[in-house]
Amino acid sequence: METDYIVGVDAGGTRTRLRFATPQGRTLSDHRRPAGEWTALDAGGKAAQLAAGLRAVTGRPPLAVAVGAHGCDSDEECGALREAVAERTGVAVTVVNDAFLLEAAVPGEGPAAGLVVGTGSIAVGRRPDGTSLYAGGWGWLLGDPGSAWGTVREAVRLLTRADDRAGRPDDPLLPLLLAHSGGAALRDVVDAMQRLPAHEWAGWAPTVFDAADAGSPAARAALAHGADALVTLVEELRGRGAALSRVIGGGTVLASRPRLARRLAAGLRARLDLPLTVYPGEPVAGAVRLARELAAAG
Asked: What does the DSSP 8-state code read for residue 244?
């Protein structure tokens, strides 16, 4: 690369996006690659992976790098990764949790909560002194409401309750999930979820959301449960001292499912008097903005 440049990185749990841009923010090139074992790596391993991604594009160092990192769920973890990346690259680096990229991508008046709803879900905000706060992001087994695997998990749980009450539930979602699992009964669906990697059955989420649009009681209840639980995550941030005047939502699920977004927006307004903006673009744009600010600060 012959010109000065900055790099924004969105290092998610599924894939990593690197955007090379001019110091003024004009995109030069985009690069995507699977995240691989990102979530299992320590700070040094993650830094090595990011540095290798930069070297694969150009040997000339950037002016600044900004990273939104899945799994950096405290200021201490983000600081450790920042130091490791800076040591590997020799350039100015800032690291935040990837949910903070949403606020950077949608500048506006007042502090915002970032709410990512994709394969998983997490809410982030900041206290007035700048320290960061996190709610959710506990993964498929215990948390991540409204997300792909959270919605599938809740819909199947509701089907099992209906089965316990009245036998095989008369819900149009069930045959669709049976087709996904290759089973003949609801217990086969549950067995498949226990057997398969979580990201595979999380891929059933579009079927659940489509079934909600078509009137499935279990799917609609699962969607409502997820939206209400996401509002609670933001409420918990505020209760712990987050300064909030708006919520910026993003992620593949929230950006593509208007029913979920409408329910979430209504809940945020009714319970917290906060407006929701759904950002449909790629959060890596927020990382570029942070890199621009870092480069300008010199």
From this structure: -
